[in-house]
Amino acid sequence: MKFKVDADTCIACGACEDTCPEVFEVEDYSVVKLDPVPAELEEAALSAEEGCPVDAISHE
Question: What pTM was estimated for this model as a whole?
Answer without folding.
Answer: 0.94
